[in-house]
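User: Working on a comparison across species. This one is NAD(P)-dependent oxidoreductase from Alterisphingorhabdus coralli. Can you predict its structure so I can line it up against the others?
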Amino acid sequence: MSKPVTDPMLRFVDTDQAYPEKRDPKLRTEDFQEIADRYPEEAAKEQSGRCSQCGVPYCSVHCPLHNHIPDWLRLTAEGRLREAYELSNSTSTMPEICGRICPQDRLCEGNCVIEFSGHDAVTIGSVEKYITDTAWAEGWVEPISVGPEKGQSIGIIGAGPAGLATAEYMRMGGYEVHVYDRHDRAGGLLTYGIPGFKLEKPVVMRRVERLKEADIHIHENFSVGEDATLEELRQKHDAILIATGVYKARDLRLPGSVLSGVHAALDYLTASNRMSFGDDVPAFEDGTLDARDKHVVVIGGGDTAMDCVRTAIRQGAKSVKCLYRRDKENMPGSQNEVRNAEEEGVEFVWLSAPEELIGDGGAVSGVKVQKMRLGPPDFSGRRSPEPIPDSAYEVEADMVIKALGFEPEELPQLFGAPELGVTRWGTLRVDHKNMMSNLDGVFAAGDIVRGASLVVWAIRDGRDVAEHMHAYLKAKARAARAKTTEPQKDAA
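Assistant: Here's the predicted structure for NAD(P)-dependent oxidoreductase from Alterisphingorhabdus coralli:
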């Protein structure tokens, strides 16, 4: 007689993939709340139990943080949720944020072994969100455990994901931590760049408050180069981390790009997110950055473009079109985000490139669009778009949003530090063995080193640079102690 099966795993053969149910598209476009709630407990267990517990967990391999995904899926399936949270939290400072905004379809879930076998991937991101949201609700998220005070301080420039991750790890190590950010709230793109329907702001703010409660000093409205130069901060702290991210918008460089009604994506998203905080935003209130009753055209195919089109829908735009020069299969953004946008009423105009912005009385009134086709692959491996002769046409537009990506600002000039080394792309030049710049004790991490990338990579860089900074500060303290004992040796 066979024994009953008690192992909660390997259920993918008889349990279908099921994400948390999304709200009706019409209802969700009326607010900026997240479009799906977390799993009920039984659904989280059931979906976690679909994990095959494979010998080589490709989900972990392809996660930049190398999270212990199969292990916390098993713990969730077994109902050992607090242990699942502690394991998830051991490799990530923001697991519930990554669960919400990581492109799982390109990372963990896209490399799930059962996905390859035709059974659909385990819903890793949704389970990750469920685990830590539950931990917050149950009071399992404890204050940061601060180690013995080292008597050394560090300054972190930039309160985005890389800077905040480093701040947490360094404070755990017993260092005095000061974070300097030019905005009035910490979080960087998490706070002002990503809309609430993907990442509700209280989720970010509770992380920031946890850092402040650990006596991490966050100096908001602080502009390095104006309130203090980089050199002045170096004199104040034993080590510096530059984690500013990249905020300079790539420009269109097309005729008509200076017309009114043409906006950078981050300006548009920041105004919208500030409104969600209840801030006074004159450029929104006077209609400049409000899409209501406008024909909106967003140019670009990445996740920022998806954020813009979905924001415009929620603001009550008459129509929202996304122009992208390649086809759907070759766009850089998340396919899940494209699907959400299509459900909400966004029109995607594939294989179309802007040729000129058309004006009427100094304001944008349309976009001249060139139809494209895909030619041979370029250096990135994607097929290069090329124009189809005599195929141009016009699209009506009262607002055009440029979502073409971001480049580094000129930090040496901005920080009053012309000696700070940069690459030919404007990113900071570092020794990748220790993540230190050409200036002693000045480290760099996140997008300002790697270029515009994912939040999860910024968190990984923040974790890695903390180890290098700790090693540097430990050696610095050892050298200082040796120096103070030298006169005593001479006297002896």
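For your comparison, note: Residues 455-491 form the longest helix (37 residues).

User: Helpful, thanks.
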